[in-house]
C-alpha cells in the first residue's frame, strides 16, 4: 500500500500553490515536507487529505484514484498544530471518539485506548480533563486519537510548532519512535530543519509550490541539489572547490564542484592551510564562532575551540571540516547522486 501524487496542481486565483508536484510514500515510510512558510507544503498535505480541490494531477492510494473519494472515506488520519481536542471530554473520551463513531465494542475501545496512552507516554491519565494537561501532553492525546482508528496514512501539519524549543525537540524524538513502532505511513509538514531530520525517512524540500529535492536526511544534508536547497538547510556560503586550494585537496573533490559551508565547516587551527583576518565574533547555543576575511574567498564563519577567542583584527589560520561540508550536485549527476 502506498500514496502516489503525480503532477499535482493546486491554485488560488493566479497563484500556483502546488505546482506539478510528484511524490510517493511507501508503506511504513515517514516523508517530511520541509520548506519556508507559504511554500505550499500545507496546501499539498490538505490536497492529499481531500480538504483542497486540485486543478490537475492525480492522488492515488494503492493505485486507486482518490479524486472522487470524500475526506471521511479516505482512511487518513489528521493531526494539526492545534490538536483540536474536545474540551468537554476527558483524555479517554478524546482518544476513543473515532472508535466509538466506528461502532467498536466498549471492551475493545477500552483496550485500544489503554494501549495507545501507554504508547504516547500518558498511561494512567485517561480520566484527566484535557484542559488540565500541558501543551505537550495535549498533543500526545491528539496523536493517540489520530492513531486510534489505525489510519492507512497519517497527515501531520506542523503538530509541534506551538511548543517551546526544548519540548519540541523531545517530542520529535518520541514521535519518531511512535511512528516507527506502529509502522505508520506518514506525511509530515514542518519548516524546522532539525524536526525534519529527526523524523524523516526521506525529506522533500519545497519552495514556491515546487518540489526541489527529495532524499534521505543524510544524503540531503551532504548533497543538496543546488544553492537554493543548501541555503534553506542553513549553509551560508556556496563556493567553488577551486577557491579552497590547497585546503580542499584531501577531500577528494573536483575543482569544478561547489562546496556549501556553514558555521562549523571551518575551524580555527594554527596549522590550517587557509589564512584570514578576524572581523567579528559570534556566540550561539551551538558554540563560539568568528567571522574571518580570507583572501580569494571573502568573509566566512569559522568555529573556535573552547577557550580560544582570537581578537578582532587578529590573523588566524583555518582548516576545512569534511563532515560539516556539503557538496552540491554537479553536472551529469542526478538530484540525489553522491558525487
Jot down its keywords.
alpha+beta; Rossmann fold; OB fold (Dihydrolipoamide Acetyltransferase, E2P); five-stranded antiparallel β-sheet; 18 strands; globular
Intertermini distance:
33 Å
Mean pLDDT: 91
Question: Strand tally, please?
Answer: 18
The CATH topology of the largest domain comes to Rossmann fold
Radius of gyration: 24 Å
CATH architectural designation of the largest domain: 3-Layer(aba) Sandwich
SS content category? alpha+beta
CATH superfamily of the largest domain: P-loop containing nucleotide triphosphate hydrolases
Shape: globular
Unreliable spans: 330-339
Strand count, sense and closure of the main sheet? 6 strands, mixed
Describe the protein's architecture and organization:
This protein is an alpha+beta fold. It folds into two domains: 3-225, P-loop containing nucleotide triphosphate hydrolases (Rossmann fold); 230-327, Beta Barrel (OB fold (Dihydrolipoamide Acetyltransferase, E2P)), CATH 2.40.50.140. Helix content is 24%, strand content 31%. The chain contains nine helices and 18 strands. The chain has helices spanning 41-49, 91-95, 97-101, 106-119, 135-147, 165-182, 193-199, 217-222, 227-232; strands spanning 3-12, 15-25, 30-34, 56-61, 64-65, 76-80, 153-157, 186-190, 202-207, 210-215, 237-240, 258-261, 266-268, 274-284, 287-294, 298-303, 315-320, 326-327. The strands form four sheets. Strands 6-7-8-3-9-10 form a six-stranded mixed beta sheet, sandwiched between helices. The chain has a five-stranded antiparallel beta sheet with strand order 13-17-14-15-16, with no helix packed on it. Strand 1 (3-12) and strand 2 (15-25) form a beta hairpin. The relative contact order is 0.12.
